[in-house]
Structures
1.
Amino acid sequence: MSFPGTGKIWMNGSLVDWADAKIHVASHIVHYGSGVFEGARCYDTVKGPACFRLDAHMRRLMDSARIYRMDVPYDQQTLTDAVIDLIKVNKFKACYIRPLIYRGYDTLGVHPAACPVDVAIMLWEWPAYFTKEAIEEGIDVKISTWARNAPNTTPAMAKSVANYANAQLIKMEAVLDGYTEAIALDTYGNLSEGSGQNVFVVRDGVIRTPPIGNSVLAGITRDCVMTLAHELGYEVREQTLPRETLYSADEVFFVGTAVEVTPIRSVDRIAVGPGRRGPITEAIQQKFFKIVKGEAPDTHGWLQFVTPA
């Protein structure tokens, strides 16, 4: 992924050129990771550009800020409207949406109260996170040696910048070891999530996923997939899962805004099932992609069109 270096970025209520969207090196976020963010997508559907579950993403953004005691100077609707306006200004048909709430420049102590709370929204064109082959055939992952943060250290339910220092370690280790991704365990040795993805495990037709208590972000795509799986007639269970569940699974797949729905074909060089995408993963993929492309009825109201009909 590379940035375009052009277009407009929304910063504290104003549109600025990409090259001019700068913060001071003494900003609190630079030194202490004091920021929260979101990642959402706008899809080019058959009925025009539409944001996928933008309302849920923006609500989680505001929840994350509240957890970190950040008094945001804009309400959720104002930021939602800003996203829609920014898509129009940049004339995108499809894009990745990155709102960021962060503590800016004032003082440099751990206590951030004196620092202003700033808000920025970026957009850029971002195709599928993995290749078409990976989406169809699956990816190879490992169990990371890095655990997810323990409960009551940093809040897993907040999508904070600081939490992604841990995610970077997980991702870098996986790539250096010859894998595409990794799955982290929690501090008790149970399944948690990938570097930026929720994980699902299929065995004997039952779909299982770690609960929020296992240091898991409450993923919005995760919620969608559970809904779609129920509609397809599958049993879905949120339950604590040991590591070895992955080695005996019929299917394993990642979900998330970036990865969408991506099958996993091996874990620690052990093939998952027959070592290729399974039928349940494929069924969920097909239903998901048809909805986000506008090819199937959006019965849940997940799509917010940039230009309403």
2.
Amino acid sequence: MGICDGRVVIITGAGRGLGRAHALAFAAEGAKVVVNDLGASLQGEGVDLSPAQEVVNEIVAAGGEAIVNGDDISDWDGAGSLVQSAIDTFGGLDTVVTNAGIVRDRMFVNMTVDDWDAVIRVHLRGTFCPVKRAVEYWRAESKAGNQRAGRIITTSSGAGLMGSIAQTNYAAAKAGIATFTINIAAELGRIGVTANSIAPSARSRMTEEAFAEMMAPVEDGFDAMDPANISPIVVWLGSEQSSHVTGRVFECAGGELSVADGWQHGKAVDKGAKWDPAELGPVVDQLIAEAPAPAPVYGT
């Protein structure tokens, strides 16, 4: 018996890297897994379902239950088909993990509209569509008197929380995912659904090229960048045990786990009247001097 025994879980981008590790970890804890992956390139081009099939084969060989799904999660109808495949095959849906993503890394002065749109579509729209489709199902179940312990786990990034040089599109998308998650968490509790996000640091196609030395596998000892290190918190958040945790963003790397503090209201100066632009310089300087220093943007 695992902590997700009998739960039905959708994982997007589950053919490789973090998504693959999540799929295997959920299956090991008794979940029935829908392995969604188009098998596109890192830039979002092409289709190849064989990586997703390999994950399914591994789960089934270990005695678990899983199916392949090749729907485009950034497409509204595709996301609906994805959710329906879980319901039709396994009789319901309990957890959605949005992990799929691409990168089009360029310095902002060289970034094209296509670079922007492609990344925003896969990350942000590709989070919204499957989550919204799942929530529609959970809301209908709740109205029918069959409230499920719905769990949403999205994937943000340190780039989204702190910024990252040459990744303005990716950082903006990941920041949007973090805020999306805390916002829906405030709305969905009444139907038994929680929403949390992770900002992981681990080996993947996205990080192997950008941080080759940091992400290189180790020959001996603890491999801190193994994507399997991230999956335990994802599995726990996707289980019924996490019902009291919602609207949080967890940074995770190796064996380290923390809750990101996020934006907080800073100290205010109130004149009690309209400011004159010429008098604001010293006021702003004072506020900045008394505020915590911002975390540095990655790559600076």
